[in-house]
TrEMBL record:
Protein name as annotated: 4Fe-4S ferredoxin-type domain-containing protein
Cross-referenced PROSITE patterns: 4FE4S_FER_2, TAT
Pfam short name (any one): Fer4_7
InterPro entries attached to this UniProt entry: 4Fe4S_Fe-S-bd (IPR017896), TAT_signal (IPR006311)
Organism of this sequence: Akkermansia muciniphila
Domain 4Fe-4S ferredoxin-type: 741-771, 793-824
Region: Disordered, residue numbers: 1-21, 965-996
Superkingdom to which the source organism belongs: Bacteria
Amino acid sequence: MSSKQPAPGNDIPQNHPAFLPEEEREMTRRSFMKWMGAGAALVGVGLPACRRVEKYLVPYNEGPEWSVPGVETAYATCLSMGGSARPVLAACYEGRPVKLLPSLPYPDGPGLPATAQASILDLYDPGRSKHILFHGKPASGDEFRGAFSSWSRNLRDGGSIGLLLPETDSPLVHSMLEEITRKNPGVRVYHDSPVPAPGSAMQAGLPQEVRFRVRFTRAKRILALDCDFLHENPYGNTRDFIAARSPEGLHYKEENRNRTRLYAAEGRVSLTGAHADHRLPVSPARLAIFTEELFRYIAGRKFSSRFPQPAPEAPASLTERELAWLRRCGDDLYSHPGESLVLLGEDHPELSGCVWKLNRLLGAIGTCIQLLKAPASLPHGTLEDFIRDIRQKKTDIVFLLDSGNPVLDSAHGPALAEALNGTESIHLGMYEDETSRACRWHLPAAHPLEAWGVERDRRGRFCYRQPVILPLYGGISPEEVLSGLLSTKGQLITADNSPTHLSPVYHRARKCFERAVNPENKTAAWTEALQRGYSEETAYPPLSPQEESGFGAITPDVSVTDARTHADALGSGLLELQFCPDYTIGDGRWKRNAWMQECPDPVTGVSWAASAQVSPATFRRLGGTGSGPMRCTITASAGRMEVILCPIPGVAENLVVLPLGYGGMNHVAEGQWNSNGYELRTQVNQANGCGIPPDQVVLHGLPERTEAIQGPVVQLSPFTAGGSAAAALFTPPGADTVYQWKMAIDTSRCIGCNACMIACRAENNIPVVGRDQMAKGRALDWIRIDRYFTEEGALTAIPVACQQCGKAPCESVCPVNATVHTTEGLNAMVYARCWGTRYCATNCPYRARRFNFFDYAKASEEATRLQRNPNVTVRSRGVMEKCTYCVQMVERAKIRHKSRLMKEHPGQPSTTIRVTEKDLLLPDGEAQTACQLACPAAAITFGNVLDTSSAVFRAKSLPRHMNLLPSLGTEPGTGYLAPARNPNPAMEEQDREKIH
Ligand code: SF4
């Protein structure tokens, strides 16, 4: 570590590559630029040329004529999320992928989840696996090639091979698995995932070859049963839901009289539940009883003769209040036939039959829910089958292909490790982890941006994965391994060792496309498909009405006797545990991703640590004092888990919501506690069936850093509009008459998903500061999400960045004019002038300015610096920084617009082209900020308020528009639209009663 660098504490471990001398780092800038030069030289020769062939390199001073430094080239590609694909655009600068953007034409979801955007950081992660290992020691290429040939020979000779993969809909992987099992009957396929895929519980009630999608535009009443569909929406397009729910429509253009009403019954506070009009806390164990009663109630209303109404008194397991809520919700759903639907969360597959019957009763099938016809998938086994087959010697060789870390995260971890140890096992993964250590061989896996592939989205569309860079660390893709096993010579050929630097998977991907689409002009169609990123014509066809009619047939057999017994057992004083993937690091796959670690949990506000939720009453029952949070240790039969326990209004009583994903190897920061939820899940499931006595949950004093690493969790009264403006000391400069940039954030749309925070990081080169610096309140995010809980447990998320005040209090106190007003209404920073007095931050009433205490950017790993956006200054120590409304994107849009104007006058010298002010005016939506582009809920509207036809003008003209702290007279450029719920008048009185 350089002597000038700040001591990193335990934010970033002392042995972190960032603090090693240059010569000890494996990934140097020079070596990277060698690869980059190879990439940049050939980007101009057609789409497949994003595979770069180094031997034909030309010096960069003869670079491709259209590659302009600082101007991005975007490639359509895709990521696999939860087993299905998400098309994205990879923005590259001179061959360097820098950020992932939403694919704008993609019909099922503008916006991009935070995790998808953050995966760009994993590409450069110097902690990725780089070497082939044999028994934990680096093996030579010759040793590995020899071994691979013997495995292929074994296969061709009729040997038995086991292939463990994550659940996937990839048509390319399916076709290769189909070919390999057809040619070699000894091959067995197994699937495993640490947590159920979003949407899988409802899918469990349908045959394999029938899929479904939700048409949110048609649904006017939605009940979410422990279903967080707004988080990375697996069912359909979130913007359709927002459009149907917004009082003024998606673009603030028309009055929406028949708005969607959202009900939620759940134990934890999810992003969807927090957004609901009515929310009932029901613990997971009692959800079955609730669902059964709801079915009986609605069926009773529809067929009173066959389904008698439930007894008027509340059943033992539902309170009177719950029953009243259920009936009013049921009445509302029932009175909107064909416009109501019920969605079920992935943790409750046992309720899928009941939920499909409910949807049939409500007339949702064929209207709000469309059933689709999918191809049948290959027969496969589970992880238990995999272990059993190894033990019984039914497989000679096993491959674990990008299958996560089952030794850590499955209930059979120790048994799996033992089985893998005793057989020829090959692990392909991006990191060395518990599973790689249990295997004989470990191969470094390629990042999705480094390998060819074909995936399917939930609607069935083929999405094409193009590599935008050669494998940085020699990674191999699962498709390359399968292709190697299928090859006649039994050789593993990758992009790195192919003579043409083109992976054989490219040809397979192209064939897969041609088989499905069967185009006339194959080359043109393939190029077009790659440019677009997906093929609409491959979407699953809908089921015919006759085929549809069989699903969800209404019969009264919805008995949940087991669930009742379980709920009764928990009622005898046990605390119920609910395990959920963490909102920031998911099921653990993002735990090395510092952007996601530094993002606050959208509900608890905690970053860099596992955070759990309980209700305030349960918190007090456990001995918690004050408003929390507290450090908590949960012990089970043979282990313990440490988390930050946060009292959150709205969580069901006697329920502890625990995050999965932490623990094990591969943390970015040292000092994270023993927070392995998987270990506890296994033990608790085996010992107590998800219930533990309260004395096993022990609260400790406040940990020294907890307060600071938790963002604002505040209970405030609702916004109030108006307020008198105080006298300002400030005289604004002359205003531009063409552009005045403003923003409106709709708090009734914002779900608090953090996608805007990550987009801002990627676009504006915001460095990671680490856990200790976060604890000192030195977060550098230019946008933060404040959370406001009402007493009833509803949560309103409010993104707050620099408000771009018209009369900015920060500008008048800067002694060196480092923060100044532009004529276009921006409050700009001149970094070169700033000398760090921090007067501006002190005078900012919105706490929106961030001070760069250390040279965080320099302290970051060299490889991750290559992710930086060349259009944004990298700030150094001692400089104040803040949101700029992505001024670089605005200026880029202006340049694009001007060059379009020029193209309208071909051959005419620019000096002779006459343009009016109106010609220069950017069309609305042309200039977008990074946060706006990423927001899946269209909560952020940005634009030129002088353009009266713009969406931002319309949003700012609405009566529910207001400013933060209006009485200060700062005239902020960013305004907020007050939450607009759509409550059921019959339930308002009930909801006024306090939940706790
Ligand atoms: S503004 Fe949009 S992206 Fe940001 S937290 Fe809200 S919903 Fe997510």
